[in-house]
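[step 3/7] inverse_fold.run input=structure_tokens len=690
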């Protein structure tokens, strides 16, 4: 077994690999860029080596520097994680040529399966079901349009070396095919150094279901059941679960057998994933093979009880697989939510900055550790409170994983874990994840890869409506009553002359458009010792007991005897989707994906509040504003130029994704306010219109 390994990655996956290595008694070497000097994976490793500047092309993608770091520290093997160099054939070969071991598949397997064009041909030779398409590299956008017409729209334009949703577009028209080809090539070249692109037919209403495989150097290959990955946004997975709520045993077995056949055809020796598109009738077609560890591997670990990182290391060290197909278990249900630094209320634009507050829910399952019999909660992350979410890398903050006895139990556990996940300083997709977990179609298992596009056609504009809105109102009133009681107790007033807290109140739920809702509230039987009260909201009673104080953010307690976890705090800024924080006394309450901003007032004050004029927001329609922090790659319009609605104006690169800004209406450009190569902040003006 290896004595020391180097992890050629960063963030969450680097930390995950280090945990397994420590369990196995293997020393670890981390690599880092200047932006990651204080990162968690650097702190966790036994040694760390600086690679270079923040951009990945100058640090984490520098194969020579990574190999040199391994040799200089005495590491015997390199684990690439996922992304960066993990599916780079040349890197895997170089590692072996330098006398080191690549903890992953052999370079020839990466070459065969990592190239999506070659992999389609190999899949057909191995009698694996494949999707119709043009499996040769396309050289220009006009050719892409011609092929798309021949196949029939819609089509998928894909980078041959792509992955993770990068270098991929779905086109329904000639215009989309033309533009999609250019964007795919640019993203592919920037992310993978390979700009080859191909086209295949897009299967409508598909499910994305993948099979985890594991092979060794002795010709043994097994499949470790499947993962359901159909909940996606812009081809990026959002929620994954294992097993799939859609497959039956016959389909599961057939998909697994085809995945094994494909892996054996390329002498696959490591953990890998064969991805399939599955139709409504459970017909399935090979999509691609990811020759690396997947982001969503924890759900497979939860239902099988296996440590995939450990198995990868053992296979790379020359050991045979310790299990056969008959030994593979499927126990319970696991769900993973990707917690990303993005603002769901601003069309999921990237959010960067410092984690002012970072408090994950209580962890009862550890990565690389056993799964409790009754399930639990696991958090895989590469950050700590006070850490930085940089602009140079992907947006993932953490992976939240739960395991339950069945799907309903896993969903309930995930909802509670999301309620208890506190992130401040950057925006996150926590509210959106909570909303997805309560959607009736998701709960029924009735979804496909178009689920988010279909049900959130206009985006996630505001927090979902709570199943019991009165609970949020009651909780706001309760914490305000506790704060008032505490203020009275420490105010220094003379005995017998203490101020009294009123029982009759009005809770005003604020709305961004000024359509505020007034709720009459009565607080009965407040007990400051037991910290409980009966709150009556619009004639409905809520018996709340909680020791949480306003200012602690995370609120726990019981409501009518049922435990709850919610987030309660003073709102300091405009609420993204929940309302408008118009006063320093505004209380924000979030629970189960729903959120309100509320003012708790005496009845007379509430009457006067209705007379307050609403301040109209400034008119910014004469500017093209940057919707996110990022690098301004291109400005496509000049001073004096007439632009039409929908016309391309600028391109911003953020977190490894290319974002095209278009004109909202016809206009004439009067001034350029930013130049290509400039790093932009949120809402920074790029163009001014006449």
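[step 3/7] decode complete -> sequence:
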């Amino acid at each position: 077994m290896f004595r020391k390994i180097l992890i050629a990655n960063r963030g969450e996956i680097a930390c995950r690999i280090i945990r397994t290595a420590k369990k196995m008694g293997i020393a670890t070497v981390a690599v880092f860029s200047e932006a990651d000097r204080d990162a968690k994976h650097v702190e966790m490793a036994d040694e760390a080596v600086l690679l270079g500047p923040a951009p990945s092309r100058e640090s984490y993608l520098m194969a020579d520097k990574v190999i040199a770091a391994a040799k200089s520290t005495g590491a015997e093997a390199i684990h690439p994680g996922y992304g960066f160099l993990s599916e780079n054939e040349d890197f895997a070969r170089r590692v072996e040529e330098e006398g080191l071991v690549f903890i992953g598949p052999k370079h020839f397997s990466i070459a065969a399966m990592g190239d999506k064009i070659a992999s389609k041909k190999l899949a057909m030779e191995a009698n694996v079901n494949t999707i119709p398409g043009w499996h040769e590299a396309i050289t220009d956008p006009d050719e892409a349009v011609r092929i798309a017409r021949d196949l029939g729209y819609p089509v998928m334009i894909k980078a041959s070396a792509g992955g993770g949703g990068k270098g991929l577009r779905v086109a329904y028209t000639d215009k989309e095919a033309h533009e999609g080809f250019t964007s795919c090539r640019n993203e592919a070249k920037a992310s993978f150094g390979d700009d080859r692109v191909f086209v295949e037919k897009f299967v409508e209403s598909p499910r994305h279901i993948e099979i985890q495989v594991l092979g060794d150097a002795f010709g043994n290959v097994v499949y470790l059941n499947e993962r359901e990955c159909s909940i996606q946004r812009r081809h990026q997975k959002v929620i994954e679960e294992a097993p799939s709520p859609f497959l039956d045993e016959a389909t599961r077995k057939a998909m697994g057998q085809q995945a094994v056949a494909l892996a054996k055809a390329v002498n696959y020796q490591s953990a890998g994933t064969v991805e399939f598109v599955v139709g409504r009738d459970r017909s399935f077609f090979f999509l691609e093979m990811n020759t690396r560890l997947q982001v969503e591997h924890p759900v497979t670990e939860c239902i099988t009880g296996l440590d995939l990182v450990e198995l990868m290391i053992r296979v790379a060290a020359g050991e045979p697989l310790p299990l056969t197909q008959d030994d593979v278990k499927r126990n319970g249900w696991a769900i993973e939510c990707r917690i990303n630094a993005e603002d769901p209320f601003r069309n999921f634009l990237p959010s960067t900055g410092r984690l002012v507050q970072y408090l994950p829910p209580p962890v009862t399952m550890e990565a690389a550790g056993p799964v409790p019999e009754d399930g639990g909660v696991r958090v895989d992350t590469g950050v700590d409170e006070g850490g930085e979410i940089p602009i140079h890398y992907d947006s993932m903050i953490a992976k939240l994983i739960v395991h339950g006895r069945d799907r309903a139990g896993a969903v309930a556990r995930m909802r509670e874990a999301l309620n208890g996940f506190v992130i401040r300083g950057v925006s996150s997709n926590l509210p959106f994840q909570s909303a997805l977990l309560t959607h009736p179609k998701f709960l029924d298992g009735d979804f496909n890869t178009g689920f988010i596009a279909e049900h959130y056609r206009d985006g996630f504009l505001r927090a979902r409506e709570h199943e019991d809105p009165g609970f949020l109102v009651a909780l706001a009133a309760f914490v305000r009553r506790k704060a008032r009681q505490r203020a009275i107790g420490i105010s220094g007033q003379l005995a017998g002359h203490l101020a009294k807290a009123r029982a009759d109140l009005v809770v005003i739920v604020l709305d961004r458009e000024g359509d505020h809702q007034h709720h009459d509230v009565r607080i009965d039987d407040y007990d400051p010792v037991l910290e409980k009260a009966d709150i009556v909201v619009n004639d409905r009673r809520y018996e709340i007991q909680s020791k949480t104080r306003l200012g602690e953010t995370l609120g726990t307690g019981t409501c009518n005897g049922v435990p709850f976890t919610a987030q309660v705090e003073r709102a300091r800024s405009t609420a993204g989707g929940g309302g408008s924080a118009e006063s320093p006394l505004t209380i924000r309450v979030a629970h189960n994906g729903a959120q309100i901003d509320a003012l708790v007032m005496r009845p007379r004050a509430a009457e006067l509040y209705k007379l307050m004029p609403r301040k109209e927001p400034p008119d910014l329609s004469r500017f093209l504003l940057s919707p996110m922090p990022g690098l301004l790659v291109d400005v496509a319009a000049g001073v004096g130029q007439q632009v039409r609605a929908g016309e391309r104006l600028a391109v911003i690169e953020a977190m490894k994704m290319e974002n095209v800004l278009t004109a909202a209406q016809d206009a004439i450009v009067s001034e350029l306010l930013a130049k290509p190569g400039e790093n932009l902040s949120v809402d920074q003006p790029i163009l001014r219109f006449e």
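[step 4/7] annotate
Confidence is low (pLDDT under 50) at residues 573-581.
Residues 469-489 form the longest helix (21 residues).
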